[in-house]
Amino acid sequence: MTMRESNDYIVDARNITKDFGDFRALDDVSLQVKQGEVVCILGPSGSGKSTLLRCLNHLERPNEGAVWIDNDLIGYKEENGVLRELSSAALAKQRTKLAMVFQRFNLFGHRTALENVTEGPVQVLGVSQAEAKRKALELLKRVGLSDKAKNYPNALSGGQQQRVAIARALSMEPTVMLFDEPTSALDPELVGEVLHVMKSLAQSGMTMVVVTHEIGFAREVADRIVFMDEGKVVLDDTVTEVLNSTNPRARDFLDAVL
Ligand code: ADP
Ligand code: MG
């Protein structure tokens, strides 16, 4: 299971099962994403979407199955034919390939927008302050927040905070970005500005896995939609196929959100 040939998937999750005690949160879930692809994951609350994202970056360790990111087996290394768990330092290094943006913005409250974006490169990547600052200003510009660099999170709207969180994620130069309902905690009038930034990221060729209930975004931006229910992938297909699916479980969900 942990041996395989290199391939051109940036995300290659195979046959993931995740149990919490007696409860099976993920049941034999596989997900493959190619370079530059945008895959949206839809599904009712509790269907395992967040758990799947957390398995991708090994925040949760699957009970069965394995995840390769850019052909790198996550969480383990092979030594003399034996699989060993990575040290937390080695895992942290591996995780820099994945950036995650959460529903809650998770900014450092006592740091300015700019400092939030320079922190990772300086602390984790060993980039100089000056270089990190130069790049952070560029990233803040990219998310439309050039004029907010000196603001603390509590002086930013939710949408602005989420855009800082995206700039912060980008500062680590990830290979793939994972979004877990990035607009669900926002007031409705702030959703658009965040989706706009995500859309421009997608157009720039970023590989993205996006858990979202924003069907409009999925329709416009996604290359594929994965529909999950009760810990299983029910559908994994083009936007048109999924949105027009006659699968009863998908239909119930889609008709409620469309
Ligand atoms: P979704 O993101 O689709 O709403 P989650 O992946 O968060 O679903 O959760 C899937 C199921 O797994 C839910 O029933 C949830 O209660 C359960 N679950 C998630 N994390 C844990 C945990 N750490 N311990 C126990 N149960 C969990
Ligand atoms: Mg969730």
UniProtKB/TrEMBL annotation:
**What Enzyme Commission number(s) apply to this enzyme?**
7.4.2.1
Entries under SMART domains matching the protein: AAA (SM00382)
Coiled coil ranges (UniProt) are none
Which PROSITE patterns does this chain map to?
A: ABC_TRANSPORTER_1 (PS00211), ABC_TRANSPORTER_2 (PS50893)
InterPro entries the record matches = AAA+_ATPase, ABC_ATPase_HisP-typ, ABC_transporter-like_ATP-bd, ABC_transporter-like_CS, MetN_ABC_transporter-like, P-loop_NTPase
Please state every residue range assigned to the domain named ABC transporter: 11-255
Keywords of this entry? ATP-binding, Nucleotide-binding, Transport
According to its UniProt record, which protein family does this protein belong to? Belongs to the ABC transporter superfamily.
Query: By what name is this protein known?
Result: ABC-type polar-amino-acid transporter
What species is this protein from?
A: Agrococcus casei LMG 22410
